[in-house]
């Protein structure tokens, strides 16, 4: 089968995806622990396979030692170059696209892949990947991974949105607007749920200025949002990492 998708820029960096990897270890722990075959696909690993290598090492250390990661790339040259980093059976690199090369992973991580597609291609890509039964974590981050956002998607559609930032580098949460997942980035306009969400976060941040550092300010801002009735997920242990997860903020089509 011809891999579904198109070759795009391969920009990546060591440690770029550490924030999302930490989240996957938390959010997908039970899914992976209960799976007969704890297979994870890293879709679109890029010009070098470094973030796929890191994903396998992190999940093996934090969740279960036999987690296997298959890095899929639509660019055959990148697949060939990655072979020197392979360590089968727990770490392999193959050619594949949104159809996931016939694999049936428990989890798919697809970071900085869909941002280079048109918005109207996102729903199909999500559907194709989650039709395999996989839980999909799909999003966007800056080049060094200091600011990131991602969607959790299953076969019934998008479930949650997570905003995540290295708090020591976060000047203002308005910055999240530039790094929203493709499905939301063009919807950050008045009247849209994602715009309301970012506006509430900015307001809570501005109202939480105080003598303490950015971590305390972030914690206070997230708590303020919850107190105002925003359905913020998880608790302080996640919030203090610079994370905020809410139900998917978009109207159902
Ligand atoms: C910007 S890189 C992202 C690398 C890495 N995931 C990261 O976040 O640092 C995007 C990669 O996705 C690949 N890609 C794009 N569409 C794809 C698809 N449908 N299936 C597999 N790989 C794809 C591109 O060829 C490119 O190498």
Write the layout of secondary structure elements.
Elements: H1 18-27, H2 29-34, E1 39-43, H3 50-62, E2 68-73, H4 76-82, E3 91-95, E4 107-111, H5 122-130, E5 135-141, E6 147-154, E7 157-165, H6 182-185, H7 193-207, H8 214-227, H9 236-239, E8 243-247
Parallel strand pairs: 1-2, 1-4, 2-3, 4-5
Antiparallel strand pairs: 5-6, 6-7, 7-8
The structure holds S-adenosylmethionine.
Residues 4-12, 16-17, 43-46, 51, 72-75, 78, 97-98, 111-113 line the site of S-adenosylmethionine.
What do these coordinates show?
By secondary structure, this protein is an alpha/beta fold. The protein has nine helices and eight strands. Helix 1 packs parallel to helix 3 and helix 7 (193-207) crosses helix 8. The longest helix has 15 residues, at 193-207. The mean pLDDT is 96. S-adenosylmethionine (SAM) binds at residues 4-12, 16-17, 43-46, 51, 72-75, 78, 97-98, 111-113.
Q: What class would the helix/strand composition place it in?
A: alpha/beta
Count of individual beta strands: 8
Low-confidence region ranges: none
Mean pLDDT: 96
Work out the radius of gyration.
Answer: 18 Å
